[in-house]
Amino acid sequence: MAMATLRGDLILTLVVLVVSTFVLHPCAAHQKQPGCTFEAIYTFGDSTSDTGNLYNEPAGFANRAGRLPYGINYPTKTPTGRWTNGLVMSDLFASAFSLPSPKPYLGTDKDFKSGVNFAVAWATALDTPVLAKFNIPHWYTDSSLLVQVSWFETYIASICSNKTDCKKKLENSIFVVGDIGSIDYTSAKLRHLNSLRVAALTPLIAKTIAQGVQRLIDHGASRIIVSGSLPVGCLTSNLDFSRSNYSRAYDEFGCLKSLNSFAANHNTQLQKALEGVRAKNPEVTLLYGDAFKSYQEILHNAERYGLTKNNTLNACCGAPWKEYNYDQFSLCGIVNTTVCSEPEKYLNWDGTSLTQNGYNRVVNWILHQLTPFLKCNNAPKPIKKPISIAN
Ligand SMILES: *[C@@H]1O[C@H](CO)[C@@H](O)[C@H](O)[C@H]1NC(C)=O
Ligand SMILES: *[C@@H]1O[C@H](CO)[C@@H](O)[C@H](O)[C@H]1NC(C)=O
Ligand SMILES: *[C@@H]1O[C@H](CO)[C@@H](O)[C@H](O)[C@H]1NC(C)=O
Ligand SMILES: *[C@@H]1O[C@H](CO)[C@@H](O)[C@H](O)[C@H]1NC(C)=O
């Protein structure tokens, strides 16, 4: 029950990108050479970015994503530990930069020459001991953002020997800090902390993300995208968990206004924190990925994006006997849940995670916004067509 409820509530925290001011950064140190081909991608975050790390942790239940129907639309049509039907955001960012998907750090394949994925599904932004001070339990993993950053530091120490050397190794790399923090909020809510106490976590989370980013910079990261929160009031499990009898609780697209405001506030604080990092590191390109706006844009123009309007708030994999196709006691992959026949027409996969199509739309929109600010000759072109989903 706790587990199901947690899943149900998880929606609360999916976060994405918002555009603030961008620091322009010339592509390379030397004017002469275009030099903006990224050699590697390093990714951090939670389930929107994990390509298999949690799968390699002793997390028990977590491995719902290690079983079908998770992965049904992955190229191999097999589960990989990704919490969706196909690819997650880190795969899609990598693909947009013409790089292979970054391998999970904890996986058995240690071929990291084009990058590493440090993201862990269910990861919190705050460290377990910090959460404990708020009497918030951790769930399936202790691999918080700063733990992920420390893995990066261990890794980087193994490939370069001093600051100059590391900077050189990383100057042609792109860093993506995906959604992180939603699990903190969800866990706090499950702990029945009142909304003020949940909101009190936000400045701490924003500060922690900024600290993590600064540590990446200290090791030589020079191009970083940090994703904000999705409009969590539009996510299926939250719509179910926080349902209201009052129509004024919903916006015209059927999303819960209060949860969206919560996410918007998180994003505002995150952007302020990033602004501080930019001020200290003017030579670094630190971009905010506005996942909130991106998701809303897609939702508000569903048909233009090839989605069935009816299904924008519904889970693809879930419980057809319930509204939103979602039952927190019968989650995707367990009991008698079903998978929709056209996942590419849905944004939401299992109530809490997006479909590959949803992630693809969000990533494309964000890169379309951010590409001019990467200032690279061969900057990623916005993908016109979504990556096709294997049938
Ligand atoms: C840093 O490491 C590189 C590569 O090992 C080496 O060539 C260089 O001399 C080192 N620089 C310093 C200041 O130690
Ligand atoms: C909504 O109204 C129904 C019927 O009056 C009631 O049973 C239910 O508890 C209400 N739900 C919420 C979330 O207030
Ligand atoms: C969308 O919802 C409407 C009203 O509930 C229904 O009549 C229609 O068949 C649905 N369309 C699809 C494609 O499911
Ligand atoms: C599927 O689950 C629902 C909800 O628990 C239940 O009402 C229904 O009887 C189940 N159907 C089958 C075939 O098990």
Automatic annotation (TrEMBL):
CDD domains in alphabetical order: SGNH_plant_lipase_like
Entry-linked InterPro entries: GDSL (IPR001087), SGNH_hydro_sf (IPR036514), SGNH_plant_lipase-like (IPR035669)
Signal peptide segment: 1-29
GO terms of molecular function: hydrolase activity, acting on ester bonds
Pfam families reported in the protein's UniProt record: Lipase_GDSL
Keywords: Glycoprotein, Hydrolase, Signal
Family note: Belongs to the 'GDSL' lipolytic enzyme family.
Name assigned to this protein: Uncharacterized protein
